[in-house]
C-alpha cells in the first residue's frame, strides 16, 4: 500500500510539473506574441513618420524654390502683391520647419528612456541609502 501511495504522489507531482510547464510555455508564447505585435506596430509607426518626414521635406524644398522665384520676380510685379506672397511663403516655411522638427523629436521616443532613468536612478538612490544605513549599523 505505501508503494502505491508513493507512486500516486509521484504521478501527481509529475502531472503538476507538466501542467506548470504548459502554463509557463503558454505564458511565454503569449508574451512573445504581444511583444512581437508591439514591435511590428512600432515599426509601422516609424515607417509612417519617415514617409511623412520625406513628404514634408519635399514640400519644404518646393516652398523654398517658390520663395526664391518670387524674390527674383520682385522687379517685374507690383511690390504689394509680392510682399503679401513672400510673407505667406515665409510663414508656410516656418510652419513646415516647426512641423519637421516636432516629427524628429517626440515625447514618445523619450518617454521610455526618461522612465527608465527615473526608475533605475531611484533604485540607485534607494540602494545607496540602504548601504549607507547598513554601514552605519
Strand content: under 5%
Low-confidence stretches: none
Pattern of helices and strands: HHH
**Secondary structure category:** mainly alpha
Q: Provide the residue-averaged pLDDT.
A: 79
Please give the number of β-strands: 0
Q: How many whole angstroms does the radius of gyration measure?
A: 32 Å
Percent of residues in helices comes to over 70%
Question: Rough shape?
Answer: elongated
Main sheet: strands, sense, barrel: none
Explain how this protein is built.
With 137 residues, this protein is an all-alpha fold. The chain is 93% helix and 0% strand. It has three helices and no strands. It is elongated and about 110 Å long. The mean pLDDT is 79.
A few lines on this structure:
With 137 residues, this protein is mostly helical. It has helices at 2-72, 79-104, 107-136. The two termini are 57 Å apart.
What keyword list fits this structure?
single chain; 137 residues; mainly alpha; 3 helices; elongated
Describe the SSE topology.
Elements (H helix, E strand, L loop, with lengths): L1 H71 L6 H26 L2 H30 L1
Helix pairs in contact: 1-2
Amino acid at each position: 500500500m505505501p508503494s502505491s501511495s508513493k507512486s500516486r504522489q509521484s504521478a501527481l507531482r509529475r502531472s503538476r510539473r507538466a501542467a506548470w510547464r504548459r502554463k509557463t510555455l503558454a505564458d511565454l508564447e503569449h508574451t512573445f506574441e504581444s511583444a512581437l505585435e508591439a514591435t511590428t506596430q512600432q515599426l509601422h509607426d516609424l515607417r509612417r513618420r519617415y514617409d511623412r518626414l520625406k513628404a514634408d521635406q519635399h514640400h519644404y524644398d518646393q516652398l523654398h524654390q517658390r520663395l526664391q522665384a518670387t524674390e527674383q520676380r520682385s522687379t517685374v510685379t507690383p511690390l504689394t502683391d509680392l510682399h503679401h506672397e513672400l510673407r505667406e511663403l515665409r510663414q508656410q516655411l516656418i510652419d513646415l520647419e516647426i512641423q519637421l522638427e516636432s516629427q524628429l523629436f517626440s515625447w514618445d521616443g523619450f518617454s521610455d528612456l526618461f522612465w527608465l532613468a527615473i526608475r533605475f536612478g531611484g533604485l540607485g538612490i534607494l540602494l545607496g541609502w540602504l548601504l549607507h544605513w547598513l554601514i552605519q549599523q
